[in-house]
């Protein structure tokens, strides 16, 4: 099973349309792979805080997300660019993570209404992996010119990068298979307490 995160906090977003197309493409490329979606517009995960009252264990909204990510062999993160950044809900989800995505491959799919989209890729590669230990694959996809509620425009934008999408999804599958051995090697041994939080 692969998890597909829809990173927009808005219902009916362009990211949702992109995620639907990615799911269809994946069903063509790898029909045996089940995709479970995590829609951050619907999940309404409370903002994470450092006190025990605000931690991951206190939010009923986190439990199903955590289970989905823990069961997944890979993550496809569909993330819109808002003001040159990822939405707060995406950063919030990564704050909740412990080891659900550790040593699992992730594919970043950035979505832009105009000609942008590079900033979410850079931001996720820079700051989301340290404690989560997600392994973003070298490939990524940027879908430009997407409009919320405009299926035809979004489909045209996706058609411009369809070969890249297929290549990236196939590559993600190869990484998912290859990293199973890494995860099995870590299970039991775990991460020493001195390196539990990365650097």
Structure report:
- The protein has helices at 14-29, 40-43, 62-71, 88-96, 118-127, 151-159, 162-186; strands at residues 2-6, 35-39, 74-80, 105-112, 135-144.
- α1 (14-29) crosses α6 and α1 packs across α7 (162-186).
- It has a single domain (2-195), classed as Flavodoxin domain (Rossmann fold, 3-Layer(aba) Sandwich), CATH 3.40.50.360.
- β4 (105-112), α5 and β5 form a beta-alpha-beta unit.
- By secondary structure, the protein is α/β, with parallel strands linked by helices.
- The two termini are 30 Å apart.
- Strands 2-1-3-4-5 form a five-stranded parallel β-sheet, with helices on both faces.
Briefly say what this structure is.
With 199 residues, the protein is of the alpha/beta class. The protein has seven helices and five strands.
Layout of strands and helices, then pairs:
Elements: E1 2-6, H1 14-29, E2 35-39, H2 40-43, H3 62-71, E3 74-80, H4 88-96, E4 105-112, H5 118-127, E5 135-144, H6 151-159, H7 162-186
Parallel strand pairs: 1-2, 1-3, 3-4, 4-5
What labels describe this entry?
199 residues; alpha/beta; Rossmann fold; 7 helices
Shape: globular
Which regions contain 5 or more consecutive residues with pLDDT less than 50? none
Looking at how many chains there are and whether they match, the oligomeric state comes to: single chain
Strand order of the largest sheet: 2-1-3-4-5
- And the CATH topology? Rossmann fold
What's the CATH H-level homologous superfamily?
Answer: Flavodoxin domain
CATH class: Alpha Beta
Overall domain count: 1
Biggest sheet record: 5 strands, parallel
Overall mean pLDDT stands at 87
Summed up, the helix count is 7
Radius of gyration: 16 Å
Provide the helix percentage.
40-55%
Gap from first CA to last CA: 30 Å
How big a fraction of the residues is strand? 15-25%
- Can you write the helix and strand succession as a string? EHEHHEHEHEHH
Which architecture per CATH?
Answer: 3-Layer(aba) Sandwich
- Report the strand count: 5
Helix/strand-derived category reads alpha/beta
């Amino acid at each position: 099973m692969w998890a597909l995160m829809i990173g927009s906090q808005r219902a009916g977003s362009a990211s949702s349309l992109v995620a639907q197309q990615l799911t269809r493409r994946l069903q063509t490329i790898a029909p045996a792979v089940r995709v479970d979606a995590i829609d951050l517009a619907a999940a309404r995960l409370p903002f994470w805080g450092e006190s025990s009252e605000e931690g991951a264990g206190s939010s009923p909204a986190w439990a199903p997300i955590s289970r989905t990510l823990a069961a997944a062999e890979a993550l496809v993160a569909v993330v819109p660019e808002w003001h040159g950044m990822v939405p707060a809900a995406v950063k919030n989800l990564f704050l909740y993570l412990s080891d659900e995505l550790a040593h699992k491959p992730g594919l970043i799919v950035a979505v832009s209404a105009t000609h942008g989209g590079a900033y979410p890729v850079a931001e996720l590669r820079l700051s989301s992996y340290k404690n989560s230990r997600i392994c973003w694959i070298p490939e990524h996809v940027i879908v430009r010119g997407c409009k919320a509620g405009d299926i035809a425009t979004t489909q045209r934008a996706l058609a411009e990068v369809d070969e890249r999408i297929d290549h990236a999804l196939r590559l993600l599958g190869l990484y998912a298979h290859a990293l199973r051995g890494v995860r099995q090697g870590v299970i039991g041994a775990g991460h020493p307490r001195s390196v539990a939080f990365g650097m």
